Write the structure tokens for this entry.
Amino acid sequence: MKVVRILGIESSCDETAAAVVENAEVVLSSVVASQMTTHGKYGGVVPELASREHLRAIVPVVREALGLAGARLEDLAAIAVTTGPGLVGSLLVGMTYAKSLSFASGVPLIAVNHIEGHIHSVILEARRAGTEVAFPALALVVSGGHTHLFEVREGFEYRLLGKTRDDAAGEAFDKVAKLLGFSYPGGPVIDFLAPYGDPNAVRFTFARMKGNASDFSFSGLKTAVLRWVEARGMESEIAARRALRRGPSPPTAEEWLAATPRATLDLLASFQHAVIRELLTRAVAAAERMGARALIVSGGVACNTGLRAAAASAGLPYPVFFPSPGFSTDNAAMIAAAAFPKLERNQFARLDIAADAGLTLA
Ligand code: KG4
Ligand code: ZN
């Protein structure tokens, strides 16, 4: 069998990543330089800092990915790079470097949509495990920037079924964590603390929305949490956690737990429970409407243990695919994987292709 290797480069948000994938199946290397310690203190990604960190990391990260894979640039079939959606300043770092590598080596460039990458993350891992995802599949892409439902058809054709009208699910996790004094990203902290609280302690309801039944909305939930916090005068508790967040080293999960009273644990458990219920209810209903043969969940929020457990115990009539945690959050193996079908179709990008912060998939 012919060996086809693609180098993937990803820099759309706060991870600088590079990976080499062989024959759409074997991950020869996957290097991710996270900026978590840079942004953690600020409670969110600071775009200017993100670009600077990407600039610092891009050359060593790509070099390490090629080195670990034992791959030479000239032997690659393509260089795949994320061109959007994401932060423009961040995207440009990865794109500029990918273009210069392509120009210097003559290896063609392939443009990849970050969201399509997240979907391919799951398909790639399923294939590595010896299973193929059956189509049509429903993809729930839940990250810090997106909450989308797509119908994925054979040949990787996409139809957008629904999306968030305001905040993304991961953004809701991040904002709730921030307002309570926890560090960025909020998802992992809340995920760790939620099992210590009662998910039915606080009843959060979602306002009924007109229009598309597959659309999401999380800003009302975030506001409800804010009202709950304001009504209870939690200033000193929150100030103590903020001080912890600003400390010399990032706090451990146990330190967060020790700084969180039972009532707040109940709040977090109830918040997470509400998000999970909202995501799964709409995804399952959409899957049924389109006759899905599989459910794919991807993006950073797919790491959530509560969401995984709820999906596993829902008794769905089709298989549910979650990526392993390292493949849920941003990585470059998913960008390389998404490029294989494009390589087969000779869908190469010109070297003057622009970054597109608001790039859509369908
Ligand atoms: O896919 P990703 O790395 O970057 C984007 O494309 O946005 O997703 C990051 C998001 C953050 O909002 C983070 O809080 C959330 O994923 N996240 C989680 C968990 N791990 C990461 N949310 C809930 N539970 C988790 N365990
Ligand atoms: Zn992402």
Summary: The mean pLDDT is 95. The pocket of zinc ion (ligand 2) is lined by residues 114, 118, 143, 299, 330 (CB under 6 Å). The chain has 13 helices and ten strands. The chain has two domains: 5-129+327-344, 137-318.
